[in-house]
DNA sequence: TCTGGGGTCCTAGGACCC
DNA sequence: TCTGGGGTCCTAGGACCC
């Protein structure tokens, strides 16, 4: 038996904790560059604002409906998430943090009234963190996801489901025919694992509701669709098929990608962006104590400006040996960038991804202890650790590696002049430079 | 006219998730 | 003018092997 705890409009709820004046108002949190909606309050939802809606299309609602738009504060959301998760941990013996705003709890072996237990946890989370949640309980993870959807829908849209399921919905406590009634009220596309594409195909085949999907033959579903959908069907039927993983698995790929606020044409601007992205992914890589064997770099124009010439290309650059060093990763990404860059295009987005990721421990023994390479790696590792610590303490981007070459040297020189004019001394050969 | 029968590894692309 | 930023898994097909 599983419970799924999911925060309501998480990013917006976090902002409301620190700005209570936002309560009752339509609020959205926008993505990078204030481009599009990544979270919205109920009031904003009622205005018809969809997830992913571009800001310029809904901006008029600021004046017309008092819409409040905010830039995201991901550090705050991560911190609030930690607090919520530590409370959810008290629900069962095992916990699986599924995303920043939701977690499964394994209720197996817990005695007592599960509905009551979940209501109490929900109240505690609300009281101690200010974040409202919905809780769903089911015999499989897919059913607990569905129960969570019912709990939220019942609260948000009165009449969509029976009132007893508001905020906490426990499918395990219901007789079979009542579960089926709830499934019959649920569109097939709402089921976890059924997306737009498969949802449309199912509807075309006459499978309109969650109950219709549950009643399909699992083996036939595998033949016609995939093992993925087969698992979903079996889970709806009450057979657990999805693994419960407590450990946060090490990432197999790590990415940093951004859309630019304005079109970018110059190679130098892309180089600056790619250098920054490289530092970010390398930091994430070191945090999970891994090395990467390959670096992917991509640039692309905006598909929304389809009247402009389009260009999109990526390249995978292998590293000589697996690394988590800023300079080596940035070097590979920049070599790739030079290779795929074409002038004459208005670039809208770029990114760096790390692939072929493995544990750092495996690679460290390849070099003889005390050899020059080993000494070098040790020094670099110490430098990287120092950079990570300073950036953690003083904010991202406080310490960066300057790129080699005339531009990097000019940057270092300018910073050095500035620092010296402030009475500091800096050494010319320092690798780390403090951004004023 | 017939054109082995596996097996592995890799990659690209699709579909899904939040 | 302005359109997010991450991830995972599965499958099909090709290359290659014996």
UniProtKB/TrEMBL annotation:
Record PROSITE patterns: UMUC
Pfam family, one: IMS_C
Domain of life the protein comes from: Bacteria
Gene Ontology molecular function terms on file: damaged DNA binding; DNA-directed DNA polymerase activity
Keyword NADP attached: no
GO biological processes: DNA repair; error-prone translesion synthesis; SOS response
Record bears the keyword DNA damage: yes
Keywords for this protein: DNA damage, DNA repair, Plasmid, SOS mutagenesis, SOS response
Domain spans labelled UmuC: 2-195
Gene Ontology terms: cellular component: cytosol
Family: Belongs to the DNA polymerase type-Y family.
NCBIfam families, alphabetized: PRK03609.1 (NF002955)
PANTHER family hit by this protein: DNA REPAIR POLYMERASE UMUC / TRANSFERASE FAMILY MEMBER (PTHR11076), PROTEIN UMUC (PTHR11076:SF34)
Protein name as it appears in the record: DNA polymerase V subunit UmuC
Organism field: Acidovorax carolinensis
């Amino acid at each position: 038996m599983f419970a799924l705890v999911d925060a309501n409009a998480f990013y917006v709820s976090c902002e409301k904790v620190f700005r209570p004046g936002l309560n009752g108002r339509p609020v959205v949190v926008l993505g990078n560059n204030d481009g599009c909606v990544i979270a919205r309050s109920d009031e904003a939802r009622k205005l018809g604002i969809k997830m992913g809606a571009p800001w310029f299309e809904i901006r008029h609602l600021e004046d017309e409906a008092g819409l409040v738009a905010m830039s995201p504060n991901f550090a705050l959301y991560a911190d609030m998430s930690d607090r919520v998760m530590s409370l959810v941990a008290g629900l069962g013996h095992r916990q699986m943090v599924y995303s920043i705003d939701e977690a499964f709890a394994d209720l197996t072996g817990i005695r007592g009234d599960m509905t009551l237990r979940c209501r109490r946890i929900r109240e505690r989370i609300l009281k101690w963190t200010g974040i409202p949640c919905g809780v769903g309980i089911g015999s499989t993870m897919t059913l607990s996801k569905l129960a969570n959807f019912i709990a939220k829908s019942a609260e948000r849209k009165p009449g969509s489901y029976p009132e007893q399921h508001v905020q906490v919905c426990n499918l395990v406590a219901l007789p079979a025919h009542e579960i089926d009634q709830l499934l019959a009220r649920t569109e097939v596309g709402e089921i976890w694992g059924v997306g737009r594409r498969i949802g449309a195909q199912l509807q075309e085949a006459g499978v309109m509701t969650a109950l219709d999907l549950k009643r399909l033959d699992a083996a036939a579903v595998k033949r016609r669709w995939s093992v993925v959908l087969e698992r979903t069907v079996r889970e709806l039927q009450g057979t657990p098929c999805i693994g419960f993983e407590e450990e946060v698995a090490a990432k197999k790929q790590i990415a940093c990608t951004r859309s630019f606020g304005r079109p970018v044409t110059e190679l130098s601007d892309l180089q600056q962006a790619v250098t920054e992205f490289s530092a970010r992914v390398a930091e994430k890589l070191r945090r999970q104590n891994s090395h990467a064997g390959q670096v992917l770099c991509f640039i692309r124009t905006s598909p929304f400006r389809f009247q402009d010439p389009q260009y999109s290309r990526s390249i995978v650059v292998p590293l000589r040996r697996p690394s988590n060093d800023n300079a080596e990763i940035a070097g590979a990404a920049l070599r790739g960038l030079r290779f795929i860059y074409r002038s004459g295009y208005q670039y809208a987005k770029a990114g760096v991804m790390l692939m072929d990721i493995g544990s750092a421990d495996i690679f460290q023994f390849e070099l003889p202890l005390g050899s020059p390479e080993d000494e070098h790696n040790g020094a670099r590792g110490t430098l990287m650790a120092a950079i990570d610590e300073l950036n953690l303490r003083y904010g991202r981007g406080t310490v960066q590696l300057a790129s080699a070459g005339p531009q990097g040297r000019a940057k270092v020189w300018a910073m050095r002049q500035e620092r010296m004019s402030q009475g500091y001394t800096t050494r010319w050969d320092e690798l780390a430079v403090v951004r004023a």
